[in-house]
Amino acid sequence: MRIIEVKDYKAMSKKAAETILEKVRTNPAIILGLATGNTPAGTYANLIEDHKTNQISYKQVTTFNLDEYIGLAGDNPNSYRYFMNDILFNHLDVEMSGTHIPRGDTKGIQEECQLYEQLIENYGGIDLQILGLGSNGHIGFNEPGTPFDSKTHIVNLTDSTRKANASFFDKQENVPFQAITMGIATIMRSKEILLLISGDKKKEAVDRLLHGDIDESFPASVLKRHPDVTIIADEAALAKA
Ligand code: GLP
């Protein structure tokens, strides 16, 4: 894993956007894996800013998001589909049909998992996967204990994850209890991974990621087995490492 240390959230967002832009310029039909949460929001804002001035086209780009809450339809403001449209897709010239997010509002969730996994395969896999890091080491919604060979699956969210994500909802009770997420094996099949980490709240997780064992009790530790991972982390996140 390569580590790029930057000053703060702003610098992380800028560096991450530059990295993504460079890849899109080289491969305009790139398959991008995208993440939600506060961490990549600034990166997406930078991509939008760049799009306004440089007019890099995203028409041929395909995207796959990591996860979605179960029970929320795409027009629910708390769904990740809504979040991604609002924060990124609606501001680029991306073809909406080329943006994929697991459906959380279908009755056949089990089937949706298989279809999503298959769709990624059909596209030949993800070229560049953007990841955030949960404070308990989760990636996507793969909570501690998730098998490293897992594919897209249904998860029960831990209390700590529901609490951490509650700020996006009116009340914590409204945070769904389950989600659909790419599995750890799905993420690991990406050709390249960009892990973004910012802030004091992540410093213990970063310490464990860099110095701890590779173990299913800390999902992100699997990334040490991937041949092409870049971490962009800010000073606060690296404070303990
Ligand atoms: C959520 C998302 C993850 C994200 C994590 C960290 O659980 N499913 O993909 O990486 O939160 O969120 P944040 O970036 O807001 O700290």
Descriptive tags:
Rossmann fold, 10 strands, binds 2-amino-2-deoxy-6-O-phosphono-alpha-D-glucopyranose, 7-stranded parallel β-sheet, globular, alpha/beta
Number of strands: 10
CATH fold field value: Rossmann fold
Order of helices and strands: EHEHEEHEHEEHEHEHE
Helix percent band: 25-40%
Low-confidence runs of at least 5 consecutive residues? none
Small-molecule binders here are:
2-amino-2-deoxy-6-O-phosphono-alpha-D-glucopyranose
- Largest sheet composition: 7 strands, parallel
Q: What's the architecture, going by CATH?
A: 3-Layer(aba) Sandwich
Tally of individual domains? 1
How many helical elements? 7
Overall SS class: alpha/beta
> Strands of the biggest beta sheet: in what spatial order?
1-10-9-6-2-3-5
Rg for CA atoms = 17 Å
| Fraction in beta strands | 15-25%
Instruction: Describe the global form.
Output: globular
Distance between the termini: 14 Å
Name the CATH class.
Alpha Beta
Describe the structure.
Catalyzes the reversible isomerization-deamination of glucosamine 6-phosphate (GlcN6P) to form fructose 6-phosphate (Fru6P) and ammonium ion. Pathway: Amino-sugar metabolism; N-acetylneuraminate degradation; D-fructose 6-phosphate from N-acetylneuraminate: step 5/5. By secondary structure, the chain is α/β, with parallel strands linked by helices. The protein has one domain (about 1-235): Rossmann fold (3-Layer(aba) Sandwich). About 30% of the residues lie in helices and about 15% in strands. It has helices spanning about 10-25, 40-55, 80-85, 110-120, 160-165, 185-190, 205-210; strands spanning about 1-5, 30-35, 60-65, 65-70, 100, 130, 155, 180, 190-195, 230-235. Strands 1-10-9-6-2-3-5 form a 7-stranded parallel beta sheet, with helices on one face. α1 crosses α2. The longest helix has 18 residues, at about 10-25. The model has no long low-confidence stretch (mean pLDDT about 95). The structure holds 2-amino-2-deoxy-6-O-phosphono-alpha-D-glucopyranose. 2-amino-2-deoxy-6-O-phosphono-alpha-D-glucopyranose binds near residues 36, 37, 133, 141 and 161.
